Each structure stands twice: as structure tokens, then as C-alpha cells.
Write the C-alpha cells for this entry.
Amino acid sequence: MVGIVIVSHSGKLAGGVKDLIEQLTQGRVRVEVAAGAVDGSLGTDATAITAAIQRADTGEGVAVLMDLGSAVLSAETALDLLPLEARKRALLCDAPLVEGAVAAGVEASLGSDLAAVRQAAEMSRSLSKLGG
Amino acid sequence: MITSSSIASWLRKAAAEVASHRDELTALDAAIGDADHGINLQRGFAAVLGRMEAGNPAEKTPAALSKEAGMVLVASVGGASGPLYGTFFLRFGGALGDQRELDAATLAAAFRAGLEGIRQRGKAELGEKTMIDAWQPAVEALESAVAAGKPLEVAMWAAAAAAQAGAEATTPMVARKGRASYMGERSRGHQDPGATSTALLVKAAAEAFSERE
């Protein structure tokens, strides 16, 4: 099953998104978190993201969801730091964090492949909340 | 000749510059960003020194020392400047091979590799009010001085002057990248914090590489 990594400036934010996915998928999907700066303040750490991707990868790949700003730069740096084989199985998703992570988690729980999981995450960009 | 001791001296001077300008960098960032640039960089460079001084930097190659600094920066800065400066040092180190003594041409090529790494990571070009506006003129000044056969110290001070001028030139620019881009036109009139810290780093390099052993 495809794994999910949540990258955020805030451990609380990332933990909450992880809780949402786990509730919706009854814990079937592996969700790892990389959030906060080394000293626990708001921030991101590329090496922590690399480690989270490796923990989430059971061989079928990992979809990475980021919040904003340095989370994106750190996630891109994290891919550079992965061993080549693992890097081929890690995709960053261009999607809003909460909606994208939930969509990716549900898609992963259905046993879809990595490309489909990323597509599900990125589809959430165009979802309307108010039906407008 | 530039050795691991010179690189270590650069990192120590960079850490000292960042620490002594912490409040100024944070104030610049408060004007157009999220007010953490000075604090983040101070934390990052303190971590770089912590890792470096725990070992014997003179025993490592310049490449290993630079890459180690890059890894610590991407992990410990916390903000966008972590991946950017971290990538600079990773690529800078990557361009040095296993040489223990670096000549001016090798150093210029390593600075160029670092600049291209930042450009690739940040997807910024000249004139967008980012650290590229200081790095690019610095690297170009270094390259042309080295190509003209100037001694390394002269070339490095030319780079430092170009970085400082480049940082000052960001003041009238409108930010197009990062948090400051949310400010749009209102980002005019403020010097870019990333370009400002870049000028400090290049000045630290000029000081370190002018030292005689």
C-alpha cells in the first residue's frame, strides 16, 4: 500500500491531519509526519522529511503532502537526500494539505498505485466546499 | 591556498556575522515576511558550528566539511533559507572533489555550483527580491576577477562588494517569491532579508579566505 507523509511547520497541524486520515481509513494506511523545526518551534526539516518518507515506504511508494513556504522547499530537498531507488517511489503532491492528504489517504487505502494516489490528492484543488 | 581550515574559518565567521546581525535580519523579515530570518539562521549556523567543533575540521576534506554544513543547515534552520543555504553548501562541497587545497578557479566553480543549486531550489531569477540578487552578482564578480588573474583575496572582496551592492539593490524591488510576495507592491522600500544575509556570508568568506596561515 502507498504510504503518506505529512509535512507541516506545525506538529499539531500535521498530527491532526494524520488523525483525520487514520479515522477515515481505519488505520489501514501508513501515515508518517515530519513537522516543526529541530527545536520544536514552527518550521521544517528536510532530513526529518527524508526519514519520514523512508518509514512510510513499504515498497509501493510514498505520496508527500506539504503545507506552505519552506515545507515545499524542504520536501524538494528531502527528495534529493533520498537514495536513488527510494527517490523514484516518492512523489510530492501539488495540493492543499488537509483536503489533499485525506483524498490521498482514502485512495491509498483502496490499494491504488502511487500515480493514482497523487492524482486523487491533486484533484482536491478544484473541489468546491460550498457547491459554488 | 584554501584548505579545510579556511572553510572552517568561513563557517565560524558566518555564524558570528549572523549572530551579530540577528535582530537586523529579523527586523527586515518582519517588514515583509514572517519575522524569523535572523532567529532561524542563528539557530542553523550555531548547529553547524556545534557539529563541526565536535570533530576535527582540519582532518576532513573541504568538500566533506561543506557538505556536513549543508546537511546541518537543511535540518536545523527551519525556514526557507534552510533548504536554500543548505543546498548552496551541499552543491559547493559537491564541486570540490577530494582536493585538500583549493585554487581560485576551483573555488569560483564551487560558488557557481552553489548559486545554481539555490536557483534550482528556489526557482527565482534576478530581480525578484531574493537572495539570488546578492548571490548572482557576487559569483559573477568572483568569476571575472579570477578570469582576469586577480589574487583570490582580491576576487573574494570584489564578490563581497557585489553581494552587498546586490542586497541594497533589492530595496526598490517588488517581491515575487516566498512569503514577501503576498505583500505585492507593499514589499517595495524594504531590503530583502535573504539577500542581506547572503552579503554577510560572502563577506565572511572574503575575510576567511584572506587569512594567511
